[in-house]
Amino acid sequence: MNTLVKLRYRFWPDKIFGELLQKPWMETAVPLLVLLLVIAFFSARIDNFISITNLNDTLRQACELGFVVLGMSIVLIVGGIDLSVGSIYALCNLLALYCVNVLGLGMISAVAITLVAGAALGAVNGILVGYLRMRAFLTTMVTLIVYKAAHDMLNAEVGVAISSNFPDAPAWDYLGFGTFLSLPVVLWVFAVVAVAGHVFLTRLRAGWHVMAIGGNRRSAYNTGLPVKRVVALSYVASGVFTATAAIFFASRLASPGADTGKGLEIVVLTAAILGGIRLGGGKGSVMKAVLGTLIILLLTNGMLRMAMSAGMSRVILATILLLAALLDIRWFKNRHKAVQELYVSPGYMELPPPQSTAPESGSPFALNDKLRHVDTIGLGEIESPEDVALDADDNLYCGNRHGDIVRFFAPDYTRQEVYAHIGGQPLGIVMTKQGTLFVCVGGMGLYKVNPDRSVEKVTDETNRSLLSIIDDSRLRLADDLDIAPDGRIFFSEATVRYEMHEWPTDSLEARGNGRIICYDPRNGKTHTCLRNLIFPNGIVMASDGQSILFAESWACRISRYWFDGPKAGTVEPVIENLPGYPDNLNRASDGNYWLAIMGVRNPIFDLAMRKPGFRRRMSKKLPGDEWLAPNLNTGCIAKISESGEVLDVMWDLGGENHPMITSMREHKGQLFIGGIHNNRIGRLKLDDADPEFVDLKEAGNA
Amino acid sequence: MKKLLKLGMTAMLGALIGTAQLAHAQKSMDDPLRDDYYANFEGRKVVFVPVFMGLDLTEGWSKIMASQAEELGYDYEVRNSNFNTAAGAQTLTSLISEKPDVIVVQNPDVQSYAKLLRQAEKAGIRVIQLNMKTNYQTTGFVGADVELIGEKQAEAAVAKCSNEANPGKVLVLAGPPTSPFSAYMLKGYENVLNASPGMNLVSVQSTGDYESSKAKSITQVVLQQHPDLCAILGVWDNTDVGTAAALQESGKADQVLVTTSGGGGELACKGLHEGMWQYYVSYDVPGQGRDLNALIMAALQDKNPVGSTKTVLYTPLVTYTPETLGDERCWSLDTLR
Amino acid sequence: MEQNTEKDGGHGGAGPMAMLSGVLGKGGFDQLRIVTLLFLAIFILYSVVLPGFFSVGNLLTLMRTVSVLGILGLGMAIVVIGRGIDLSMIATLAVPSALVLTLAAKGFGVVPAVGIGLMLAISIGVLNGILVAYAEIPSLFTTLAVGIGVAGIGQIGLFDYEIVSWPPALDGIAWIGRGSFYGVPYSVLAFGVAAIVIGIFLRRTRYGMFVYASGDNPGATRLTGIPLRPVLVMQYVISSCVAFFAGMVLAASSASMDTRIFNLTWIYDVILVVVLGGIGLSGGRGGVANVIIGTLLIGTIMNGLTIMNVSFEMQNLVRGLVLLVAVLADSIINPRNEETAQQGDI
To answer: Domain Strictosidine synthase conserved region, which positions (chain A) (predicted)?
Structure first.
């Protein structure tokens, strides 16, 4: 039974669902589903619904519509609406045909003139809505009427002249009927524009401005974005896109029809909303626009081809629109809830029984009171010093939760200053002989503070693993580091699936979400050396200079990893049955290692680790603050040897002077103690330590 | 000739023998054209692309076409553009790749479908245009001579107004400004009115997309300005229901002559009965349907390349006035064959 | 809520003139006042320049041409005040009333026929309301789709032709759109009655206040214990009923119901009338007065242009430009502030 559970939780890809759901592109899942259903339905009903010729016809129409939808989408994303597209379309169609059929202009000049006209018509909207701050709905509705009237008047003048000329313009006809690599020209143009639009919206600064203004116009204005200009330009873009569509339409049909573009705004709006673009701004993508366009076009095309009665097709269209919108809105509203429920995917973990901590058990971890009389430094003046370090001049450095590195001045450590401001919570820190401070910053990556106090990023990304669904190239929770003799920096990243404040959730998973990463200053490259570690935390260089010892907190074990030498690449266990959750590891003056234990295991949590189903139900049914979490209250400091012997353990039964422990650093016969939940730093005089010992690294070339 | 003679001789001989042998039963014979004729229609397909179904005109045409299709055994299908030119163009585009044998199309205006109809004929589909034509001539056209309708209406107005003492003020309620149907009709009005010195064209207004409510409000406004209006030239019976309502409300139904036109359906007779209009030019949907069916049959039998024959059939117009009225003259869907 | 519109609404039913004086008596220029001034300017200009414009007969005709539009505007106003929009109104105007005509022609009797039509209209409203309030689909999209669906249901088989003529069986109620009462056309009276009823509803009843509250701040409305969702449903039911009423008036007036009007751009005119008068699409503002002024402005422009025998397209162009001037004047005189603008207010 237990083996079955083990196998199920080892191999069944629980976490894939949650991770897939969490991807931004999953927002388009509903439109995609609707599109596939539409295609499946009509393919079953109509012969050749998807045939090459028909596909080419459909694609030509789809791309024409798609251009207009793209334009409308940009306006919608910015938080406006452009109802005048139908009339702009009609006017541009007329203009293009007038240029080609009546004036006999070449393709290039006709296209250029039409695009400029589209931009100008859009610019009218843009100036009115963007700069004069008129209401988009009303304004574009009025320009719809005005443009339409202008079109009707012009059409009466030039319509007959246009339709009685059939010019011989091969380049122009190529736009309408030509193919390139057996696909319609318009499709190629549309593909280029769509890809460019995608890059623009997701990768370029200007595109981010568009998204930001749509997302929160007031904030965008207050951060100094050119709100008016961007809004105005979005209408110009809409005009240009509409003109592009009109050019292809004109070259295909050559029809200066009276009701060209009539009702187009409704079709386009429907497509955009079906694709999942929200009215009111801030939400939308090129993909959504494309999907919405395809749905609406295949739907109407399919129903026309089925010769369905007009009433019936209207009813069906309305039903599908409503169902799709309903689904999409439910999906939009509930996706993050589903993510919350599905994202946490507990695994199976069986911990070996812990070494006893009973006072009389004879176990090395037997409770004692050695830490009770720790001195305090900076009591009430510092928050969350996860790790501590000292420089050659005995000054004390630590991080705080405001994102600073704080320096306490030797010798009495009563004065302090903000040494440097980093911005994220500093976790593990290491001081080099040269005075450079290397810092692991939660949520930011690996940073260094130069002796001149300038802060510099060392690395914040590593190679993305091929099979991972979530993007694990960015560093989310760099935790502790050490520096090899050749200057390479090895640091742990506790989890790739959660942010720093979500560490209790990661503990609930008990999965190998963490990794050890190496930064090589010689070529500036970062790569991941060990994966699937269960919350890797402390790291310390072993005596051979070819391996590191590292602690995995939720697995309650210490292991050793060889990165060089004959055993390169191998991992061996050092201690596997710690009574608590190990945190930082540091060198001791006698060649052994200090180990901080931040909390003590308890049987309930250990049992829960063997019951992933239970934890899964808990994470789904209960609010987060009622979940089980590892106990981070009482800890101890242990001295261990490289082979795993526990040499000494220091407990504090009272927990008054120094309530919890995440790190410790030996310096000139004293042990400085950090604790992430503390408001102080502890100091303990070590009796038998080397009074000259300092824990400083070679910085290499970094 | 020789053959005919021979045939005649044989027939005469046969008749003689037949009359001689009175007891012998009459002999049956195969019509040699018959099999070929029916085989022609096997598996053929005709598609009707109207601007809009649900009007007496389109429903009437469609019913007549459908019943012939049923009799002769070819497929008949309606693809309704539902007042949407873009949808119509989409339908035609996919029809070009579907390749039915004949497309019957009612154009929304002169230009919209012109290029597509050319493509369709190039692709080997015979296109018959119905009532509203483009400036590209295809295999067939069936429809009214709209200019003539206009002339007839205008003549009726002249006949009434020049007789009387009033100044002969005329209001024109036209269709959509871009519609050729309406434009040709206006041409007809002008032909006659310009030649009649006593007539005064006080206003030419568009009823938008043949909206009766718009016809009503325009009539009301114009009546305010010209209480002595003499005649109204309306574009279509369904629209002029509104015109008549305006006149009835203002109590001037007897003073103003309303002329209109349409397919000659029930509404035509009802309007004449109730005094909504006094002169009605019908383009006779049953007659048009018959012409249409004839062209379809011809197109399905035609073995020549598409576009080598082009036929135009203008429908003979029928005018109704209260004096010539008889209910049997107006058709309804139930009375159509 | 704005103080000025608060008070104007009370005058809403008391006839346009009383309302005008109320509007002009206060300082400041909001959109309502700008549109009122524009209306007066055009009115005076026409009266001076156009012979025959300023006559009782023509003014009544003017009112009569826009009365159906005005009635629709009143229904739309309720939904817009509640921060929604009802694009299905034209379908709701056309289909139930065409159904009534059809049923009456088949001998159903006046009351059952009208009853069935009203039931259809109410169910359209309920459908809209549920989809907007409970399924939380944006109103623009919901009513667009429902409008298409309703038009489709009409086409599938509620009536034989798209244009249904007024049957003699209904002549008993034909007065709602036809004829006149002491010289005032009934359709104008119908507009007046609708304005008074809706004015009283909006300003004098609790549910009217709920409509304002739900448009002004839906979240706060909900927190204060007002049944937000039922109130939303109610708004759409009212607008559907108003559209049905407008449909009956229109059908009686033009002696037929042409259901093809669904294909036209009428709905834009209705929105224009409402928004032009100063009822913001962001909800919670405006009242009956705004609709009346918007309607009068449009009616006056069109009436004058028709008298001048201006062509159809030119009328549209001129109308569009005048409207643009009205909206532009508002946005120049009362520029919207980036700090106070509402998010998602289009």
So the answer is: 479-565
Name the residue range of residue C137's domain: 3-333
For residue B26, being part of any structural domain is answered with no
Alpha carbons C141 and A322: distance in angstroms, whole number: 8
Residues of B whose CB is below 8 A from C68 = 213
Instruction: Give yes or no: residues A283 and A417 share one domain.
Output: no
Among candidate residues B233, B283, B282, the one with its CA nearest the CA of residue B258: B233
CB pair distance less than 8 Å for A149 and C148? no
Question: Does residue A315 fall inside a structural domain?
Answer: no
Choose the final residue of a domain: A301, A333, A360.
Answer: A301
Q: Is A425 exposed, middle or buried (0-12, 13-18, 19+ CB in 10 A)?
A: buried
Whether A310 contacts chain C with CB within 8 A: yes
For chain B, the maximum distance between any two Cα atoms, rounded to a whole number of angstroms, is: 87
| pLDDT tens, N- to C-terminus, chain C (346 residues) | 333 433 343 333 344 444 444 444 444 567 888 889 999 999 999 999 988 888 888 888 888 889 999 999 999 999 999 989 999 999 999 999 999 999 998 888 899 999 999 999 999 999 999 999 998 888 888 998 999 999 999 888 777 777 888 888 888 888 888 877 888 888 899 999 999 999 999 999 999 999 999 988 888 999 999 999 999 999 999 999 999 999 999 999 888 888 877 766 788 889 888 888 888 777 888 889 999 999 999 999 888 988 888 877 788 888 888 888 888 887 777 777 776 666 656 6
Alpha-carbon gap, residue A388 to A323, rounded angstroms: 59
What pLDDT score does B328 carry? 64
- The ipTM estimated for the assembled molecules is 0.84
To which residue do tokens 């156009």 refer? C50
C-beta atoms of B87 and A304 within 8 A: yes
Contact call for C276 and A314, based on CB within 8 A: no
Number of domains in chain B: 2
Verify that B297 and B263 share a domain, yes or no: no
Name residues whose C-beta falls within 8 Å of residue A145's C-beta, 6 or more positions apart in sequence. A87, C265, C268, C316, C319, C320, C323
Put simply, whether B85 touches C (Cβ < 8 Å) is no
Residue B290 sits in the same domain as residue B278: no
Per-residue model confidence as pLDDT tens digits over A37-85 = 988 988 888 877 777 777 777 888 899 999 999 999 999 999 899 999 9
CB-CB contact of A515 with A539 (8 Å) = no
Structurally, chain A folds into a number of domains equal to 2
Nearest-by-CA chain C residue for A279: C344
> C-chain residues within 8 Å CB-CB of B84?
263
Would you tell me how many other CB atoms lie within 10 Å of the CB of residue B233?
30
**CATH value at residue C206:** 1.10.3470
CATH of the domain at A66: 1.10.3470
CATH number at B246 reads 3.40.50.2300
Same structural domain, B75 and B154: no
Contacts of A257 in chain B (CB under 8 A): 85, 108-109, 111-112
Distance, in angstroms, between B300 CA and closest chain C CA? 31
> Does one domain contain both A512 and A624?
yes
Residue A10 has pLDDT above 80, yes or no: no
Does B15 reside within a domain?
A: no
Q: How confident is the model at residue B12 (pLDDT cuts 50, 70, 90)?
A: low
Domain that holds residue A575: 375-460+472-685
Q: Is residue C343 part of a domain?
A: no
Q: Do B178 and A255 touch (CB under 8 A)?
A: no
**Does B224 sit within 8 Å of C58, measured CB to CB?**
yes
Report yes or no on C44 lying in a domain.
Answer: yes
Residue with tokens 């122009």: A172
Q: Which of B58, B78, B94 to mutate to test the interface with A (most CBs of A within 10 A)?
A: B94
3-state SS assignment for residue B262:
strand
Same domain, B124 and B204: no
**Domain containing B136: what range?**
34-143+285-316
C115: alpha, beta or left, given left = phi > 0 and alpha = psi -120 to 50?
Answer: alpha
